[in-house]
UniProtKB/TrEMBL annotation:
Quaternary structure (record): Homotetramer.
Entry binding sites for ATP: K10, F58, R86, T92, R103, N117
Organism expressing this protein natively: Nostocoides australiense Ben110
Domain Nucleoside diphosphate kinase-like: residue ranges: 2-139
Subcellular location: Cytoplasm
One BP term from GO: GTP biosynthetic process
Listed Pfam families: NDK
Protein name: Nucleoside diphosphate kinase
Gene: ndk
Length: 139
């Protein structure tokens, strides 16, 4: 089934010049880029985006990190691209992510206290629709 997913190249990926690398992997896989913008996220947008994590111990450092600089927000489209991009991204903890994945190839550690793992990808169809609405209300 053709799906859309919301991808973020996080501030660590942006600072390290990995935006093009991430986009290249998405395109090489055969997914289409539907919309793209560079912005520094507000705490308010992040509270919506990470609603499921509000109140968890890692939430505040996560918001600090995610609002620390520009990110590239991207809507991608393709056959089963939600799970597909998660598989390109690799495991959440970059020290455990497999080589060949974005986090496995480029993520170093958790960057304590901020959780630096290069990319975000929606984790299911409902999250994808919700997250695309946050970053691209016009879509
Ligand atoms: P993912 O980004 O793989 O979907 P998630 O939704 O569980 O992972 O968490 C969102 C982000 O929060 C994740 O990319 C990094 C951070 N994070 C998650 N679990 C964490 C933990 N146990 N300790 C520190 N940071 C964490
Ligand atoms: Mg998640």
């Amino acid at each position: 089934m053709t799906e859309r997913s919301l991808v973020l190249v996080k501030p660590d990926g942006f600072k390290r010049g990995l935006t093009g690398e991430v986009l290249a992997r998405i395109e090489r896989k055969g997914y289409r880029l539907v919309a793209l913008q560079i912005l520094t996220p507000t705490r308010e947008a992040l509270a919506e985006h990470y609603a499921e994590h509000v109140g968890k111990p890692f939430y505040e450092p996560l918001v600090e990190f995610m609002s620390s600089g520009p990110v590239t927000a991207v809507v991608i489209e393709g056959e089963q691209c939600i799970a597909g991009f998660r598989s390109l991204a690799g495991a959440t903890d970059p020290t455990k992510a497999a080589p060949g994945t974005i986090r496995g190839d480029f993520g170093r550690d958790w960057g304590t206290p901020a959780q630096e793992n290069i990319v975000h990808g929606s984790d299911g169809p409902e999250s994808a629709t919700r997250e695309i609405g946050i970053w691209f209300p016009a879509l």
